Amino acid sequence: MYDPSLEQFLVRPGSTVDLNAWATDEDLDLDRSEAEKETKAHNRRLEALQEQLYADKRHRLLVVIQATDTGGKDGTIRHVFDRVNPAGVKVAGFKKPTSTELARDYLWRIHRHVPADGEIVIFNRSHYEDVLVVRVHDLVPPERWRRRYHHIREFERLLVEEGTTIIKLFLHLSKDEQKDRLQARLDDPDKNWKFSVGDLAERDHWDDYQAAFTEALERTSTMWAPWWVIPADRKWFRNHLVSRIVVNALEGMHLEWPEPEDDLDGITIP
């Protein structure tokens, strides 16, 4: 359902993106405790809508989550989708391509994981890695990754025209907040496993990644699959905003309970 209060977080197709102008600590002046209560209510509503989506079998939902390291991808999934039935929800993460995947086009491994009728699929990283990491680390020539913006737009158009609703979320984190989160992983023995020396190497490429994200948002925010820029410094607000966006998308599908296969009148259980 349309919610005008969310418009400020939407990347309008064809617009110029300046990530420095998008606040990473925005909270709409909400009271944290009240917002967290609302998030729990959204989660309960999401639980009910997901069950109906699974039963209805006429729609599909793909949620794409991209962020810098420590941006909160795992936390968002855990807090927003904690009440859903795992039978109808899948999470797909995309790491370094395997030899089998490298032998095919870069979208092959992505297409295998898109949702079927009645499913929600969440991409923890996605096909956008093929215009982000490959650009920052010069893994393919510029003329090659630049062509991929067109591929991605048309790939997403195909999915939408075949019945998939796509929500694309960029978790927008500040460099200072990333520093604090990386330090927290070092300081807490229970979080040491999350830290890698490679995280520091990636942090050195901060400006390059910001430029890559900026162009990806500009080139691939479309009428059929627009991007949302989610302020991610405050985890509670991130969760609140994402839960609202997902619930609104599901409510906009006008889901229905299917008719029973047989006439149930007069049936008793012996």
Question: Layout of SSEs?
Answer:
Layout (H helix, E strand, L loop, with lengths): L9 E2 L20 H25 L3 E8 L5 H8 L8 E5 L5 H4 L5 H4 L8 E5 L4 H8 L5 H20 L2 E9 L2 H13 L9 H7 L2 H15 L6 E5 L3 H17 L19
Parallel strand pairs: 2-4, 2-5, 3-4, 5-6
Antiparallel strand pairs: 1-6
Helix pairs in contact: 1-10, 2-10, 5-6, 5-9
Task: Give descriptors for this structure.
6-stranded mixed sheet; 45% helix; single chain; 270 residues; 13% strand; alpha/beta; Rossmann fold; 6 strands
Structure description:
The chain has 270 residues and is α/β, with parallel strands linked by helices. The chain is built from ten helices and six strands; from the N terminus they run E-H-E-H-E-H-H-E-H-H-E-H-H-H-E-H. It has a single domain, classed as P-loop containing nucleotide triphosphate hydrolases (Rossmann fold). It is 45% helix and 13% strand. Helix 5 runs antiparallel to helix 6 and helix 5 runs antiparallel to helix 9.
